[in-house]
């Protein structure tokens, strides 16, 4: 914790006090303080960030995910929230959605100077894929799709699913978008995805049908 935060905490500024609890590993106290104060001041984004991070570190992943999504509603380019959402989705085997968040992190902060970022880009010509550093995998690697539901629904996310080969998910995103608003471009993309699926193209299409 830097000197400014320590000074603010000493003066009773509650997000700084919560940050102090967080830095000391007192996650439950940070959660309790943030929940109480955010009930009174829901617009304090810095406090919500501490709440979300503390929830994550106490294993309350579902609640943390909800809070990070609230943060991204207020600030779509919030680096910390984007990074944690990528981590949560990757943890939950929603790899394509996680990649979308990680890709946005790289767009905003290519050197990851604002984060302790466990990602590296492949130094290969004409590739937009990310290499994600993970622990050693067992030999019984999943051969079915690790994905279940699209994490969020935008045309860009649909395009990322499509480009990664997750055609079932791409189609679901495009269908949801068309349900909200007719769009000839999205309709064309959906038609293309459905034609590819009919021909048996794409990753994990059989597994996704079973899900």
Give an overview in words.
α2 (14-23) packs antiparallel against α3, α8 (155-164) packs antiparallel against α9 (167-180) and α9 packs antiparallel against α10 (184-198). Residues 117-148 and 204-211 have low confidence and may be disordered. This protein has helices at 3-10, 14-23, 27-40, 45-57, 61-74, 79-91, 95-108, 155-164, 167-180, 184-198, 205-210; strands spanning 119-121, 130-132. It has two domains: 3-132, Serine Threonine Protein Phosphatase 5, Tetratricopeptide repeat (Alpha Horseshoe), CATH 1.25.40.10; 155-210, no CATH class. The chain is built from eleven helices and two strands; from the N terminus they run αααααααββαααα. The chain has 211 residues and is mainly alpha-helical. A two-stranded antiparallel ribbon has the order 1-2. The relative contact order is 0.07.
């Amino acid at each position: 914790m830097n000197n400014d935060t320590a000074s603010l905490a000493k003066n009773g500024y509650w997000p700084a006090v919560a940050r102090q609890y967080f830095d000391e590993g007192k996650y439950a106290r940070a959660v309790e303080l943030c929940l109480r104060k955010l009930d009174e001041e829901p617009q304090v984004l810095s406090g919500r960030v501490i709440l979300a991070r503390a929830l994550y570190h106490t294993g309350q992943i579902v609640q943390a995910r909800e809070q990070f999504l609230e943060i991204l509603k207020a600030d779509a380019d919030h680096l910390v929230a984007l990074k944690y959402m990528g981590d949560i989705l990757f943890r939950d085997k929603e790899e394509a959605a996680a990649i979308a968040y990680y890709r946005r992190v790289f767009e905003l902060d290519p050197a990851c100077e604002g984060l302790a970022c466990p990602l590296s880009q492949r130094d290969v010509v004409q590739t937009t894929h990310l290499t994600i550093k993970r622990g050693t995998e067992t030999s019984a690697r999943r051969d079915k799709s690790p994905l279940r539901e699209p994490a969020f629904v935008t045309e860009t996310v649909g395009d990322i699913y499509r480009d990664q080969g997750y055609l079932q998910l791409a189609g679901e995103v495009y269908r949801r978008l068309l349900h909200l608003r007719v769009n000839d471009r999205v309709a064309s993309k959906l038609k293309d995805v459905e034609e590819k699926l009919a021909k048996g193209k794409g990753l994990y299409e059989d597994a996704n049908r079973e899900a």
